[in-house]
Design a protein that fits this description.
By secondary structure, this protein is α/β, with parallel strands linked by helices. It contains 6 helices and 11 strands. The strands form 3 sheets. Strands 1-2-4-3 form a 4-stranded mixed β-sheet, with helices on one face. A 4-stranded mixed β-sheet has the order 5-6-8-7, with helices on one face. The protein has a 3-stranded mixed β-sheet with strand order 9-11-10, with helices on one face.
Amino acid sequence: MTREQYYVQYGAGSIDFAVVRRDRKTLEIAVEPDARVMISAPFDTPLDRILERVRRRAAWIQRQQRFFAQYAPRTPERQFISGETHLYLGRQYRLKVVPNGVGTVKLIRGFIVVESQKPDCSEITRDLVEQWYKRRAFVKFSERLELNLLRFPDSESFRPHKIMIRSLRQRWGSMSPSTGLLLNRRLIQAPLDAIDYVITHELCHIAEPQHNSTFFQLLSRILPDWQRRKERLERVMA
């Protein structure tokens, strides 16, 4: 028995699923109570056939996931007050809001320190933190792009013509047909190896736009441990 991890794009988001190959004759799709999608398939089933089956059943899969999501615990909404924890590059930092007219955000010894004219106004604190995240995202993502391009034999063929950073609800990134790399601002909260996975994944789309067997072969050749990185991204950012 072998197990593989893949996903397909559907609408504005994606469907992640695991493939378990067994000694059986038919392909079966199941949605677990924790919303995981499990595919049981014969050993000799081509990947493209599995991907196509998931795409055809995508609406049903998402209905099942929404049903189970009704009973899942909800992550509390961030209040942006002192003492609250926030992620940066995969590490937890405690928020500390102090009175000051400057309006700055700094990392200081395990704290995200926010200096604000109105330290009791959580909306101002939220805006300052979000602006700081976005600035850090542009700097860090640009650095990681250069490092991840080195994974490719002909790196300049995989260089996007620009980087865009936005708050996205359902995806971590995308690559436009004109090779514009769009990354989710929330990625700055993820570990570096997870950020590298998303960037490398999107760079592979320059060679192969679709999530087919050719794409996954390229991704596995360039980043052999991509499944581990993807799982960590989902675990940390859940």
